[in-house]
Amino acid sequence: MLEVAARSRASVFLNRISAVDISMMSAAQRRTAVNEIYARHGYLFNSMALRKQFLQFPWYKPRPGQTMARIFSSFSALERANLAALNAAG
User: Fold this and answer.
1) Most buried pick, 23, 67, 75, 90, via CB within 10 A?
2) pTM for the full model?
3) What's the mean pLDDT in 7-32?
4) What 3-state class would DSSP assign to 12?
């Protein structure tokens, strides 16, 4: 199941994520995937736990002063669709 979850998270950025992939993810994995979409665009999380979680990755470059709305506006159509699907799943 972890392999499926990892593939699903990778799909969030490369492909439209399927309902089957989402159904195989736990609520925590879905939250992580949602947060990773924002993190990949440089969202500076208020939560220190989330900051620490993403600071371990070289691709995470926080952009202080950017609002969540401004970060969201930079999402591709694919990221928006995947975000909506992940959020709809709970």
Assistant:
1) 75
2) 0.82
3) 78
4) helix
